[in-house]
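Handout, page 2. Input:
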Amino acid sequence: MPAIVVVGGQWGDEGKGRIVDHLAKQAQVVVRYSGGNNAGHTVINDGGTFDLHLVPAGIFYPSVRSVIGNGVVVDPESLLQEMQMLEDRGVSLEGLVISDRAHLVMPYHKTLDRLQEQSWGDWSIGSTMRGIGPAYTDKAARLGIRMAELLDEEAFRDRLAFVLAEKNRLLTQMYGEAPLDFEEVFSRYWSLGQRLARYIKPTERLVQEAAAAQRTIVLEGAQGTLLDPDYGTYPYVTSSHPTAGGAATGSGLAPTQIDRVMGVFKAYCTRVGDGPLPTELHNEIGERLRTLAHEYGVTTGRPRRCGWFDGVIGRYSVQINGMTAVALTRLDILDTFSEIGIGVAYELDGQRLDYPPSNVAEMERCRPIYETAPGWLTPITACRRFEDLPPAAQQYVTRLEQVLGCPVALISVGPQREEIIVRQAVL
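Output:
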């Protein structure tokens, strides 16, 4: 039974949805294990281009069970809109299952997200304002409401009455906001729950049954390693664990049942929001990368900051996640560059670093030490074997393998499903 985690190796937006879609055709179960609708995966297939935020990328294969795991926080309105979009475009939702242990994003979470970001001023973190951070805060503080409670009217009413009273005190006394009306919130969310009820299941049992039956399971991460609250550029991070370690707690699969970890890296670096990005290019090259790759957030539409490949955080990410293979995406975006930078180390206060500092103030002061690789100046989208790539492109990939200390198994050379080079079997 191969169980594989697909994890972002950078700051998110690496193209994980594309890789999950590629692997899902060989899988029986795909589990989204972290994040909320603050994440976005773009999948391009015969039906067109799909932007997913909560539904796993396995949904396009009718034989696959697509599981929204317990580690996800679910905005039911957003999820229903996404489900409707998929159905309107001919995608079956019969394989979709939602964990009854997944926590809900409530209206007060979105309000608090906005108020906190405003009040923090210069210390704001660039939140997507989707209420994700406050939802995970309540989960840890034992003030959360879970999908299971949407199936029990009395339990939901009692739980919401207690939690909303707490949140209204916070809204009115700390922020001077109007309180939320209990009956309005209750009736709205109870109605949403009724529409989702047939999808809500104890998904850890489903996942364990699949494992016992030796079925192939793909664990789909959201965001990237450098946004992990423990291992990322804290406090400019997300509120769940996008790393491979989070895949077990967020899916119901035991760590000993996971035998492969695929890290997904862009052939360059991007980041949305605030926080360190040592290889960021504040020049025409950075703007050119953004324009060529249309680097704008799937969820927010915000322009992504762009830079050369950062091998320091890449090596760190490989180690933290225990990556067994790498998928390199968007290599074709570099087709027109005569020279390409590879960040191989940092310089901090006169010292060379081969490991990212945990102190964000130090990380902000880090300056990349680059190697320069020659470009190939020819389109590669038609390539289907590694040997078909121009020699300079082959050398670039080989050098990234050396820098990362991990083999590159898949290479995306274009946005379409078939525009991928398989160097070695992954499943």
